[in-house]
Amino acid sequence: MSLPDRPHLEKVTKLFGVLAEPTRLAILQALKEAPMPVKDLVETLHAKQANVSKQLGILHDAGLVERKREGTLTVYSLRETMIFDLCKLVCDKLRRDAEEQLAALERMP
Amino acid sequence: MSLPDRPHLEKVTKLFGVLAEPTRLAILQALKEAPMPVKDLVETLHAKQANVSKQLGILHDAGLVERKREGTLTVYSLRETMIFDLCKLVCDKLRRDAEEQLAALERMP
DNA sequence: ATACCATATCGCCATTTAGCAATAGTCCCA
DNA sequence: TGGGACTATTGCTAAATGGCGATATGGTAT
Description:
- The structure is a homodimer.
- By secondary structure, the first copy, chain A, is α+β, with helices and mostly antiparallel strands.
- Helix content of chain A is about 65%, strand content about 15%.
- Chain A has 5 helices and 3 strands.
- In chain A, a hairpin with a 2-residue loop joins strand 2 (about 65-70) and strand 3.
- The longest helix of chain A has 26 residues, at about 80-105.
- The first copy, chain A, is extended, with a radius of gyration of 18 Å.
- The termini of chain A are far apart.
- The model of chain A has no long low-confidence stretch (mean pLDDT about 95).
- The interface between A and B is medium-sized, with 35 and 35 residues.
């Protein structure tokens, strides 16, 4: 029963898809430090405003991020910290793979 | 220091990308029950052989799956159970969202 | 050798999408 | 009431990719 029918499966893959983009992950990482308006993200990530806005929209639609207007600014903040649990699992796996590959290299000189 | 430089970021997103596809997730789910040759996956998933082979290749390149030839068969098996930890986190989030949405509906009849 | 099954790969097409420049909308202040 | 800063949207292009049929490759038995 772990991963059920196709419709549900697609919801899951959709969320993975949202995380499958460097700019979006970078945004989440930046917001982890503190809530931020768009312009600060633009500066922090050295990205174009149009693109940051678009990616923020996608993150917001996915329910990963919250919007709050403050005057002329739109301040975004994290809505899901589970993202970083996901990232940690992935990073651990990547590290395991790297260590394994290193060991394989040392085994045949 | 949580999520570092851009190159590392892209490795992480690449793995998320591998999981951002219903057919691939379905394959992983099927392999969770037991190792299987391609033809069984084709039958189980009601998918085309060419596509299953292709997706298996991607899963293999990502180090999520193992290949072992047995005569004329190629038996695939899981190499990473951490996938299902990822899926569980995502499913929990989806369920939380759904409950929240339901509560919001009941709040205004 | 031959026929056959299982798997992998190739060429192709349709769809999706990140990024960009330009523009529209929104809010504040002088 | 303008002007300016901030943000969202639109139209576009180039690249990536899932899926398909057809074909190549590899392994087995007769």
